[in-house]
Amino acid sequence: MSARHLLDIDDLRPAELVDIITKAEEPSPPQVLQGKGVGLIFEKASGRTRNATEMAVVGLGGHPVSMRGDEVGIDTRETAEDVARALAGYHAVIGARVKSHAVLERMAAVSPVPVLNLLSDLAHPCQAIADLVTLRARFGALAGLRVAYVGDFNNVARSLAIAAAFTAVDFVVASPPGYGPTPVDVDRIASLNGLMTVTDRPLDATKGAHAVYTDVWISMGQEGEADERRRAFEGFNVSSGLFENADAKAIFLHCLPAIRGEEVDAEVIDGLQSAVFEQAANRLAAARGVLWWMAETRS
Ligand code: CP
Ligand code: NVA
Questions:
Q1: Lowest CB count within 10 Å: 160, 188, 241, 280, which one?
Q2: Which of 3.40.50.12780, 3.40.50.1370, 3.40.50.2300, 3.40.50.300 would CATH assign to domain 127-279?
Q3: Which residues sit with their C-beta closer than 6 Å to ligand 2?
Q4: What is the DSSP letter of 269?
Q5: Is 136 marked active-site?
Q6: What crossing angle do the helices spanning 155-166 and 183-191 adopt, rounded to 10°?
Q7: 254 catalytically annotated
Q8: Which protein residue's CA is at the shortest distance from atom 4 of ligand 1?
Q9: What's the pLDDT tens digit per position in 198-240?
Q10: Three-state SS for 230?
């Protein structure tokens, strides 16, 4: 039996994603990690992911051990493969937030225990699961909802687009030229029978949407591109006017951390229709659902 890893949402089957969401919604999960460890490596900063994942491990009866990237030294102190093989000797799951997605793939290729992506340059599946938990809590059924993502088609947007494809959520992306889904992304969503529309007109994207979502214009590791990105994303900030084009009962979502006045205006993120802190809190439920699923799943 080999481990099932979760590096992006399409490592799951659609029914497994729904199972994880259902598990996330369970207030009293079984103690499936009783007496077990979960190792969590962070090569980049984290507030929500570290706290949510650690507390999810505790909620399932296990013991989390968080490590900073520089103390583990992936590919400096020892290879990614050796880190994974060694940590698997202590832990039931290895979670990692990495600079390069390829590092996760290398760890997953050799790890006898599940490897969980806690954010990479390409994907953020734990965030997407929390986003679906939030949408389901607010709207009930997911199928038929329309989510408008305005901004950079990055790690967060890519995983959310796949999660939307799996759950029949209509996903509309508005990005400036050069920052939207690539042809590879479009093909990937199409192969999953996803409903993804791509535009460079934010007002077209938010029209009638049930949720308007954005993320920072300059992700961790892109600081050197800050000036050119700020210029490129001009006109793509979620202002009140853009948000009001959505459905009257629409919610505003953001993975956080956010920069007010840049990708979103304060009156939207701090407004009555913002669900961002409920969404942040749902990271805990989502992590519990994922870890519970991993603990009972073998391929
Ligand atoms: N949304 C998210 O992953 O937040 P952190 O970077 O604080 O973990
Ligand atoms: N796109 C952001 C998400 C942070 C949670 C980043 O990668 O920095």
A1: 241
A2: 3.40.50.1370
A3: 119, 154-156, 215-216, 219-220, 255
A4: H
A5: no
A6: 20
A7: no
A8: 48
A9: 999 999 999 999 999 999 999 999 999 999 999 999 999 999 9
A10: helix
Ligand 2 atom 2: residue of nearest CA: 219
Neighbouring CB atoms inside 10 A of 182's CB total 11
Same fold, 9-124+283-298 and 127-279: yes
* Residue in 8, 127, 131, 210 annotated catalytic: 127
Look-up of token digits 């009962």: 249
H-run or E-run covering 150? strand 146-150
Beta bridge partners of 196: 171
- Please confirm, yes or no, whether 63 is among the known catalytic residues: no
For 75, half-sphere exposure in the C-beta direction (CA atoms, 13 angstrom radius) is 10
Candidates 121, 129, 159, 216: which one to mutate for ligand 2, based on the most atoms within 8 Å of Cβ?
Answer: 216
Q: For the residues 142-148, what does the mean pLDDT come to?
A: 98
- Annotation marks residue 138 as catalytic: no
Single-letter code of the amino acid located at 106: R
Query: Above pLDDT 90, what percent of the chain?
Result: 98
Peptide bond into 14 cis (omega under 30): no
Are 132 and 142 in contact by the 8 Å Cβ rule? The answer is yes
Is 124 one of the annotated active-site residues of the chain? yes
Number of residues assigned to the chain: 299
Considering every ligand atom, which ligand is closest to the CA of 276? 1
| φ/ψ (deg, to 5) at 98 | -125, 155
Name the architecture of domain 9-124+283-298.
3-Layer(aba) Sandwich (3.40)
Residue 146: beta bridge partners?
170
Using the atom order of ligand 1, give the atom closest to the CA of residue 220: 6
Sequence spans of domains, the chain:
9-124+283-298, 127-279
